[in-house]
Specification:
Structural class: mainly alpha
Distance between the termini: 60 Å
Number of helices: 16
Number of strands: 0
Helix content: over 70%
Mean pLDDT: 75
Low-confidence stretches: 4-8, 40-48
């Protein structure tokens, strides 16, 4: 039996090598490739002129921007200190880690005291020490970004009015850093302080995206940076940016309104099993108590919880829209 297996493996390896190295010569693929290469290299491409040149340049810029966006998406997650800053917390990494460890210890001890067992205690400790702090950090970050997007178009309008009135861009940014609400005030104060220590104002505005990772902040930094390098009417460019920001805000509100029915349906469907289980427990506790007293019932509850979680995640993916 071993001899047959060895013979089969050797024959398969020889066939694979023959397919890779011999077949292209027998089928004529190499000749076709050489012919294509000779035809492609025989006549050089014509140099674009006029509208063709501008179109080609625009396509190159669009390709470059798409490549930068893909690199940004593939980039690794920011470090913990940056995420704490993005969430608006002045905590240090050490304080965050110590708090997470304390939550895990408290959850572990409380679960053991209830008699749930060592495995359940470890699971609750992991959820309280790792999952809960990261979820809270993500929640605070999203809430801060949402408030920033609500106030950002008004801040850009203030800058436009200041520039039209004759104020320098630095003074307009300082005005926002002094009189605006949070988180606009802290982010623009960081821009002003960075520019004060010697960094060009264009690069300082590009730093806004690090503290507030939303496309609108990236748009603002790019507009100011391009204007500082190539010149132009900054008030007109920022005015157009403000219009784009308000249009994006309207589109987001429209998408939320259109998806609200689906979100309500998903919430009802997700809460229905828990509600029915609670009502049955209130009316007939002996009928449903087998689910957590019998070993097979606990297995069934675990399987149902897993499938419910998968269904909720699928519905969440279907009703969340990126634009």
């Amino acid at each position: 039996m071993q001899a047959y297996g060895l013979f089969f493996l050797v024959a398969f390896a020889i066939g694979g090598v023959a397919w890779v190295f011999v077949y292209p010569f027998l089928s004529g693929e190499r000749k076709v490739e050489r012919r294509k290469a000779s035809i492609a290299g025989a006549t050089p491409a014509a140099r674009p002129t006029g509208r063709t040149a501008s179109k080609s340049r625009r396509e190159q810029i669009e390709g470059t921007l798409k490549e930068l966006e893909q690199r940004r998406k593939k980039a690794s997650r920011p470090p913990l200190s940056v995420r704490l800053n993005q969430a608006g917390l002045d905590w240090s990494k050490r304080r965050f880690i110590v708090t997470s460890v304390l939550l895990a210890i408290v959850a572990f001890i409380l679960t053991l005291l209830t008699g749930a067992g060592l495995l359940a205690a470890l699971g609750f400790a992991f959820a309280a020490g790792f999952g809960l702090p990261l979820w809270a950090l993500s929640f605070l970050k999203k809430r801060r970004e949402s408030k920033f997007l609500d106030l950002f178009p008004d801040a850009v309008d203030v800058i436009v009015r200041g520039i039209k009135a004759g104020l320098p861009l630095h003074d307009s940014l300082k005005l926002i850093a002094t009189d605006s609400q949070e988180p606009i005030r802290s982010e623009f104060r960081s821009i002003v302080e960075t520019q004060t220590i010697g960094m060009p104002i264009g690069e300082a505005c590009l730093k806004l995206f690090e503290g507030m990772p939303v496309p609108e902040a990236n748009f603002f930094g790019i507009v100011v940076s391009i204007q500082q390098r190539s010149g132009g009417n900054l008030s007109e460019a920022l005015g157009n940016l403000s219009k784009v920001l308000r249009d994006r805000k309207k589109m987001k509100a429209k998408i939320q309104a259109m998806s609200m029915e689906a979100k309500a349906s998903a919430s009802i469907i997700g809460a229905l099993p828990i509600a029915v289980m609670s009502l049955v427990w209130l009316t007939s506790p002996q009928y449903i108590s087998l689910l957590w007293t019998d070993p097979m019932g606990r297995i069934m509850m675990g399987g149902c919880a897993v499938w419910m979680f998968i269904g909720v995640m699928v519905m969440r993916k279907m009703i969340n829209f990126d634009f």
